[in-house]
Amino acid sequence: MKKENKTNKKAVCIMSGGMDSTLSAYMMQNEGYEIIAVHFNYDQRTQTKELECFENICASLHVKQKYILDLDFFKQLGASALTDKTIEVPTQGIEEGVPVTYVPFRNGIFLSMAAAIAEKESAQIISIGVVEEDSSGYPDCREEYIKAMQNAINLGTKEETNIEIKMPLVHLKKSQIVQEALKLNVPLELTWSCYKNEKKACGICDSCRLRLNGFETAGVTDPIPYE
């Protein structure tokens, strides 16, 4: 039986610079958690922009402790349009099944590394902005999978380490995410979702389509620039 952690409330927030993980971090802060921000550079197409967004969002959240981790493993692995530039990012609409933008076991690897940080920092929470319905068919965005990872993490850590993985957006639609972000005054203009571009979002990749549809359904204008 794991012991209860009595230390200050801390949440390790996996933050890509995107809208979902940013809202998740704001929700954790709103619940009174000290944010420990974690960002991964994995040679993704929009790495420079995502890192810039992460830094700006951390400033907005007044984050005191952050980790920026460089992973060249995914580039060596390839197998995804996000990390292998010989594979085109789809722009014809949402694909059936698991799309080519899926990075093999990415969230599993991210959660494992976040767990190591959480154990070191005596954090009670790992926050991840997975969304099941709008996840583009990614198998590592499912609630069942994240819960299984939580169980594995607690089995593989010290007795006094007791980590809960929070996924506050998992059952929300993109329009609901936009609405929740507006309620918490999340600076959506600092976030980025495009899979292809770093200056102006393409507006036609799966991620842009999901984002734009969410804003349209919510009845508000997306503040980031598009081609």
TrEMBL record:
Gene3D superfamilies for this protein: HUPs (3.40.50.620)
Binding site for ATP: M15, S16, G17, G18, M19, D20, S21, T22, L23, S24, A25
Keywords: ATP-binding, Ligase, Metal-binding, Nucleotide-binding, Queuosine biosynthesis, Zinc
Similarity-based family: Belongs to the QueC family.
Catalysed reaction equations from the record: 7-carboxy-7-carbaguanine + NH4(+) + 2 ATP = 7-cyano-7-carbaguanine + 2 AMP + 2 diphosphate + 2 H(+)
Primary gene name: queC
Binding site for Zn(2+): C194, C202, C205, C208
Pathway membership, UniProt: Purine metabolism; 7-cyano-7-deazaguanine biosynthesis
GO terms assigned for molecular function: ATP binding; ligase activity, forming carbon-nitrogen bonds; zinc ion binding
Bound cofactor: record note: Binds 1 zinc ion per subunit.
Name recorded for this polypeptide: 7-cyano-7-deazaguanine synthase
Top-level taxon of the source organism: Bacteria
InterPro entries attached to this UniProt entry: QueC, Rossmann-like_a/b/a_fold
Needed co-factor(s): Zn(2+)
Enzyme Commission number: 6.3.4.20
One BP annotation, GO: tRNA queuosine(34) biosynthetic process
Task of the protein: Catalyzes the ATP-dependent conversion of 7-carboxy-7-deazaguanine (CDG) to 7-cyano-7-deazaguanine (preQ(0)).
HAMAP family: QueC
EC supergroup of this enzyme: ligase
